[in-house]
Design a protein that fits this description.
By secondary structure, this protein is an alpha+beta fold. Helix content is 36%, strand content 22%. The chain folds into four domains: 3-129, Methyltransferase, Cobalt-precorrin-4 Transmethylase, Domain 2 (2-Layer Sandwich); 148-213, no CATH class; 223-386, Heat Shock Protein 90 (2-Layer Sandwich); 424-508, Orthogonal Bundle (Arc Repressor Mutant, subunit A), CATH 1.10.10.
Length: 510
């Protein structure tokens, strides 16, 4: 521990005490919480409020150290072995207690019992666990994983098993870009070898993994997606819940995100290349990780929240096995759901274990956007992608007037002439216009083109969205200069503007 470390203050893994409490239980909660999560240090002789070193009496250092070791040994179950040392900083003596992540979880305070005396670290505090986290810690301590446990409530269904075999085979073919007849058939025996099924005489017992891969009756094993207006959760624009086999959920959630982030375009010679504002592969990787590594005992769903300035993907459950964010980024991996990870790997959904966060970071760097933020929330894990201001296709079209790249009915033509000789605008045909909008904007535009007098209520009904959501999309079209209101509020109609603007903002036809 250095002076600079102390000046940084307390954190999830560092706690300060002015002096050792007389009641050992007051700091024993932190000791067991460290052992149940990613470890940590407690420093005796530092004021947590001022971050100043007050020190302990040098003559009592060894007495304090002995008291700590004895208290931890007597009060904690299973046994925790603390690393207790002392050092001198600025002429004052401090005592440091370091606790390493334990392997025999859950650790708890003996006098309080396992149910009431088990703690974990959450945002710099020690918090008692709930039933789901306690069960997860017990699985970690025994070396078992939730997904490999037999589910006695669900009977084996051969049709479901064969469908899963066919789906796995199809995914393998798609990931390797092979005709499906070039991929060997997946059998029920394969499912048994991968731990998805357990042999029981002439039949099979289902595991939790089998349920998650098939009819998925678990209440919280789903992905909740939402698009919000602004930068908080005050106003919903669109929201969906995806259930069913977890590999299908991944694809559906991925498409939801792509539907609601901006799609821009770049011009490379005579070719227009579509480009999302965020790297799709990084988004997909984050969704896969959230499903594969989540805690399925937790009474929470994977949540994907899209705001004006960011996309958040939150996975229930603390980081597994004492892993820290820094270790996860460096490539260390501890698998919470071994059966799910095994099947995802064979399906080509997971490429290589332990590289997910690295690929997200690398994908954002190569894309030229801000790197994602990884947040350990104690009882959950969150990935945050910060949205960029990628130029949209419509903005790109309006820029044509001064760049010399002209969009015509037949495509995109690069014209290397002086600015004075460049045309300042051409009509955008309907198909060209719609091809550059997001899916939601495209649907709204098509409804208006078909019926200019359509109401927002009717559009909301047809599209299965809220009226606020429709209004939000229409405002985006208005801001792009594509949607105008003609006539009075009640008697008027909507009009899709198929014309671009010149440098003075005036509409010009071909």
């Amino acid at each position: 521990m250095t002076l600079e470390d102390i000046k940084c203050g307390e954190s999830k893994n560092i706690e300060f005490k002015v002096q050792l409490p007389d009641d050992s239980k007051k700091y024993m909660k932190t000791i067991v919480a460290y052992a149940n999560t990613s470890g940590g240090k407690m420093i005796i002789g530092v004021d947590d409020a001022t971050r100043s070193i007050v020190g302990v009496e040098p003559s009592s250092v060894f007495q304090i150290m002995d008291k700590i070791v004895n208290a931890v040994s007597d009060m904690c179950v299973p046994q925790i072995i603390p690393d207790v040392t002392f050092q001198t900083i600025e002429g004052k003596c401090i005592v440091q207690i370091e606790i390493y992540p334990g392997q025999n979880r859950p650790y708890y305070i003996r006098s309080m019992g396992k149910e009431n005396g088990t703690y974990i670290r959450v945002a710099g505090t020690s918090r008692p666990v709930d039933e789901a986290i306690l069960k997860d810690l017990e699985y970690q301590g025994t070396g078992k994983t939730y997904d490999e446990i037999v589910n006695v409530e669900i009977d084996y269904d051969e049709k479901q098993a064969l469908k899963l075999c066919n789906d796995i085979r199809r995914y393998i073919a798609e990931s390797k870009e092979l005709p499906i007849n070039k991929v060997r058939k997946i059998t029920v025996t394969n499912l048994e070898n991968w731990g998805i099924l357990k042999k029981n005489g002439q039949s099979y017992l289902t595991t939790n993994a089998f349920v998650l891969f098939t009819n998925n009756t678990f209440r919280f094993a789903k992905i909740q997606c939402a698009l919000f207006k602004g930068e908080d959760r005050a106003v919903f624009i669109d929201r969906r819940e995806f259930t069913g086999p977890i590999y299908d959920q991944i694809e559906e959630a991925y498409q939801f995100v792509l539907k609601h982030i901006n799609l821009g375009a770049t011009i490379d010679g005579i070719v227009r290349k579509d480009k999302y504002e965020l790297p799709p592969e990084s988004i997909r990787e984050a969704i896969i990780n959230s499903v594969c590594h989540r805690c399925y005992l937790d009474h929470s769903c994977v949540q994907i929240a899209i705001y004006d300035n960011r996309v958040e993907i939150t996975s229930p459950g603390m980081l597994y096995g004492g892993l820290t964010v820094e270790q996860a980024i460096s490539g260390r991996s501890k698998i919470r759901n071994v059966c799910i990870a095994e099947v995802f790997s064979r399906m080509g959904i997971i490429e290589q274990w332990g590289t997910g966060l690295q690929r997200m970071i690398r994908g954002c760097r190569e894309y030229g956007v801000q790197e994602p933020e990884f947040v350990d929330m104690g009882d959950s894990f969150r990935v945050i992608f910060y949205r960029s201001n990628i130029e949209t296709d419509i903005e790109n079209m309006e820029r044509v007037a001064v760049t010399g790249t002209e969009i015509k009915d037949t495509g995109i033509e690069s014209r290397m002439t002086d600015i004075e000789n460049r045309e300042t605008g051409t009509e955008i045909i309907e198909d060209e216009l719609l091809s550059v909008l997001s899916d939601t904007e495209k649907k709204v535009a098509k409804l208006i083109l078909k019926n200019p007098e359509i109401t927002q209520d009717k559009m909301a009904e047809v599209m299965g969205m809220s009226k606020n959501g429709i209004r939000y999309v229409m405002n985006k079209l208005k801001n792009k200069g594509l949607l105008v209101r003609v006539g009075a509020t009640k008697k008027g109609k909507w009009s899709i503007n198929l014309y671009r603007k010149d440098c003075d903002g005036k509409e010009i036809a071909d």
